[in-house]
């Protein structure tokens, strides 16, 4: 009768593979513990060197994943798996996944560029992604998260950001608030100029230097347009913009300065 089971072979297998299994388990435990330990050290180094807070989680997670992959390859080698072929298979798999997720990889590459060159930081007021304006809440690997003035959460893919013009409104610490006010052709330009300057003095956000000025920017079809550009701290941009819009209108009304609006004259022939 054919022998299906051999106790001696079973013992031999146990003897042969038990050290490998124990070694693999110990390697996994120590390797994964080491990955966590080194990740914490990397985080501390990044904090000590004052690396941007939006870059720290990405670099730390990159170190963690890289160490864990090396540990898994080492464990596979302990069981006789050819690591070179394993790496080749892993590379081919990564290539196939990359082809399937090439759009996501474009966002990933753009995220690396944003985190490296830092055209904006968390907390900056920006205009990105073809006209999306808001405060930067997060810079993720695939997306940038904005909080708009009306408290909407806007998620912009990073490749869309890098393929468009990036305007960092708060990137220069101070910023000029572009404002234009139209008055009628019969109104006094100097009087309107003084009104705008006086309203500017009432605004607590407007800086003394550079001094605010008011100039005639255009002789329009139905109005004389006066332009002013008061400078403020970048975080007070919208507060100043809304203050000036409202209070200049109120001051014009009090002083009898008209604000023309589009109109049409119709001539009837008898």
Compile the SSE list and pairings.
Elements: H1 7-48, H2 56-78, H3 83-100, H4 102-117, E1 125-128, E2 132-139, E3 143-147, E4 153-157, H5 158-162, E5 167-168, E6 174-176, E7 179-183, H6 189-202, E8 214-219, E9 224-228, E10 231-233, H7 237-255
Antiparallel strand pairs: 1-2, 1-5, 2-3, 3-4, 6-10, 7-9, 8-9
Descriptive overview:
The protein has 270 residues and is of the alpha+beta class. It has 7 helices and 10 strands. Strand 2 (132-139) and strand 3 form a beta hairpin. The radius of gyration is 33 Å and the shape is elongated.
Radius of gyration over C-alpha positions, nearest whole angstrom: 33 Å
Mean pLDDT over the residues:
79
CATH class of the largest domain: Mainly Alpha
Measure the end-to-end span: 125 Å
Overall morphology = elongated
| Low-confidence spans | none
SS-derived structural category: alpha+beta
Relevant terms:
five-stranded antiparallel sheet, alpha+beta, three-stranded antiparallel sheet, elongated, Helix Hairpins, Alpha-Beta Plaits, 51% helix, single chain, SH3 type barrels, 270 residues, 7 helices
Brief digest:
The protein is α+β, with helices and mostly antiparallel strands and 270 residues long.
